[in-house]
Amino acid sequence: MKLIMSPASPFVRKVRVTIHEGGLTEQVTEHPVTTTALDTPAEVRAANPTGKIPVLLRDDGPAIYDSRVITRYLDATFDLRLYPASRLWEVLTLEATADGLMDAAVLMVYEHRLRPEELWSEAWTEAQWGKVTGALDAIENRWMSHLAGPLDAAQIAVGCALSYLDFRHPGRSWRDGRPALAEWHAAFGARPSMLETAPE
Ligand SMILES: N[C@@H](CCC(=O)N[C@@H](CS)C(=O)NCC(=O)O)C(=O)O
Distance from the CA of 52 to the center of ligand 1, in angstroms? Predict the structure, then answer.
């Protein structure tokens, strides 16, 4: 199988961490691409009509996307047990919370990187940051016991989301007022799967 990817993408990182945690690095080769919302390589669009990464090119079936579909596919195919039936709706909801955080954080980057400066909207950017902080507060207040449990797909998503904030929004100090999440992330970020997938 081949993963169409870029190391900087937090959605790609979710998949890469899943691959490392599952011991699947021999089964999935990485195919790096450079893509933005304004410039999508033809091979990405051919595999995913929305033009987004990650995409997994399977050996025995059509390409699949997005990150949640790929992690669930890997989980089911290789019996990784990252979506345990007993906690499935909690795992999916927390994963969706982390993915929503990433969506907002990525859109903030696009606003300044892809749009002309005269069109930048402070109100829009801060509204996106409000989604990030809302997700962070929800995790700090309601999900820490879940994060303390056995490794699952939601933990991977949260870890990648927080590391993306460090990578792209270091001045926003997401740890302020969220000591439990900061402590959890310090430990999670030291996992070999996180160290081996860190963007340059
Ligand atoms: N919901 C998608 C989001 C993927 C996504 O937004 N990927 C970004 C990179 S971080 C992308 O490909 N952007 C290019 C674009 O928006 O056209 C997923 O979970 O895979």
Answer: 4
Residue of the CA atom closest to atom 19 of ligand 1: 67
Tell me which residue of 130, 120, 121 sits closest to 100, measured CA to CA: 130
Token duo for residue 40: 């999508």
Can you tell me the distance from the alpha carbon of 2 to that of 64, in angstroms, rounded to the nearest whole number? 11
Average pLDDT score over the chain: 98
Of 162, 183, 184, the closest CA to residue 173 belongs to 162
The upper half-sphere exposure of residue 45, i.e. CA atoms within 13 Å in the direction of its Cβ, equals: 8
- Summarize pLDDT for 87-97 with one digit per residue, the tens: 999 999 999 99
Where do the domains of the chain lie, and which CATH numbers do they carry? 2-78 (3.40.30.10), 85-191 (1.20.1050.10)
Q: 10 C-alpha to center of ligand 1: Å?
A: 9
Q: How many CA atoms lie within 13 A of 153 on its CB side?
A: 31
For residue 80, give the nearest of 31, 144, 15, 29 by alpha carbon. 15
